[in-house]
Amino acid sequence: MAKSKTLFICQNCGTSYPKWVGKCDNCGEWNTLVEQEPVSAGKSVVSRSSSSGKILNVQTMRSISTGENSRRLATGFTDLDDVLGGGILLGGVLLMAGQPGIGKSTLLLQITAHVAKSESVLYVSGEESASQVKLRAERLGAEKSEQLSFASSTSADDIAATIRSDGYKLVIIDSIQTLALDEITSAPGTVSQITNSSNVIIRAAKQSGAAVILVGHVTKEGSIAGPKVLEHLVDVVLQFEGDRYGGFKILRAVKNRFGSTSDAAIFEMYEQGLRVVENPSAALLAERQNADGSVVLATIEGTRPLLVEIQALVNPTSFGYPKRTASGFDLNRLNLLIAVLERRTKLNLSDKDIFINVVGGLKLNDQAADLAICMAIASAAAGRRIDDGIVVYGEVGLGGEIRSARSADRRVAEAKKLGFTQAIAPKSSAKNSFIKGVGDLRSALIDYLQK
User: Fold this and answer.
1) Once rounded to an integer, what is the mean pLDDT over residues 308-336?
2) Domain range 282-448, CATH class
3) What percent of the chain has pLDDT over 90?
4) Contact predicate 2/15, CB 8 Å
5) Comparing C-alpha atoms, which of 118, 128, 56 is closest to residue 88?
6) Could you check whether the bond before residue 379 is cis, i.e. omega within 30 degrees of 0?
7) C-beta of residue 186 within 8 angstroms of C-beta of residue 35
8) What is the mean pLDDT of residues 270-287?
9) Confidence bin at 45 (pLDDT 50/70/90)
10) Rounded distance, CA 126 to CA 175, Å?
């Protein structure tokens, strides 16, 4: 009997290949090939579907009952509940991704310990043994719960069957890249295994009404490992960011079918696990010294206002090409701001090495950080500092103009709460004496950089 051959089908354009390749030659996309059984030549796909299909049972939206699936599980972290839109929704599938060592397993074990006080929870690990998880549970104080169960498995079929048994309200799977289906011969972590394993898990979650949290690995570029279809399949995608060796760690929702994507939870790692940072602005500014190159930025992280110190260091370069380095800020954006500074002001930075640091390990995605970055660079280059009690925010255009920023009221309120007396901001935000409006970058540097 002839051995049946499998084909690898590109999920982006549909091109088939006899063996797996990393890049589709037809559409140019990477990691989009999925292993599939070829359709038998005796009957076409169209004829088979037309003969086997049946009429769907439809309902009006008014007649659909949400029932138990509208209930949410509290995580034990109020800020995380806000990120999720009120808690973990039963029947929902969440994907949490982050770099190694950031604290994904620690956070999930803390969540399971809280949920297990009132509901049955299953923690499935494909990476660690039972004894290893027990050691971490003892450190976090999560080993005493009778409703917290553990299993070590890499079989997606077995895990899906366990979810369908209706014995658990919350299931943690660590991680999706370690699971495999028996029907697929490729190794765990491949595109076909991740896609099909996640499909099986998601179908089981929807049938049983159990909430499932999948842990995802990330690539060295920071994106979630595996096919992009994985992010489309799940209901919520959580991204864990920050410095794994210290500093604050931020958990934000990249995708959320049940809530907003504008909230963020800020954590700090302790020996007993992760804790929510109650006043991150005060913690970030506690050790600040007002020297040249130091500027306080009023930024927005999700919907939360934060005061962050921006540090700049400018030195004459020892080489022919000046070096630009940014920690916590986009390097391409930094190069653009340096070009605006040189073109719209009298600063000469072409022979200077420039280093930018965002204190606390935060990664800024706020366009209103532009003015603070420019003023920090100018302060370090000229050897002049900004007066105490001043915060800065505003977007800088290519013409050197200062553009408006969102949530100006929240930024100002946070600055007042911590004792600041003045804010350098766009003219459109200057509604009271606290805010000093500036129209362009040059006037901001002339007026507020002191000797």
Assistant:
1) 93
2) alpha beta
3) 49
4) no
5) 118
6) no
7) yes
8) 88
9) very low
10) 6
CA distance 338 to 356: 11
CA dihedral 403, 381, 357, 416 (to 10 degrees): -50
Predicted model pTM: 0.78
Instruction: Please report, for the chain, the start and end positions of each structural domain, with discontinuous segments joined by +.
Output: 7-46, 71-278, 282-448
Residue 150: C-alpha distances to residues 81, 106, 147, 163, 165 (Å): 24, 15, 10, 13, 15
Per DSSP, the three-state class of 46 is helix
For strands 211-216 and 170-174, give the pairing: parallel
Tokens linked to 447: 């007026």
pLDDT of residue 429: 83
Task: Name every residue whose Cβ is closer than 8 Å to that of residue 376 and which is 6 or more positions away in sequence.
Answer: 293, 294, 295, 310, 311, 312, 356
**Nearest Cα residue to 203 out of 212, 191, 194:** 212
Structure tokens at 372: 């603070």
Q: What is the pLDDT of residues 204-236, one digit of tens each?
A: 999 999 999 999 998 877 788 877 888 999 999
What's the CA angle centered on 64, arms 58 and 67, to 5 degrees? 140
CATH architecture classification, 71-278: 3-Layer(aba) Sandwich (3.40)
H/E stretch holding 172: strand 170-174
**Pairing relation of β-strands 422-426 and 390-392?**
parallel
User: 177 forms bridges with which residues in the sheet?
Assistant: none
pLDDT in tens, 48-103: 555 667 888 888 888 877 766 678 999 999 999 999 999 999 999 999 999 888 99
Is the pLDDT assigned to residue 44 strictly greater than 60?
no
* Three-class DSSP category at 290: coil
Please compute, for residue 440, the number of CA atoms within 13 A of its CA located in the half-sphere on the CB side: 11
Cβ(190)–Cβ(196) under 8 Å? no
d(CA 284, CA 307): 7
Beta bridge partners of 308: 297
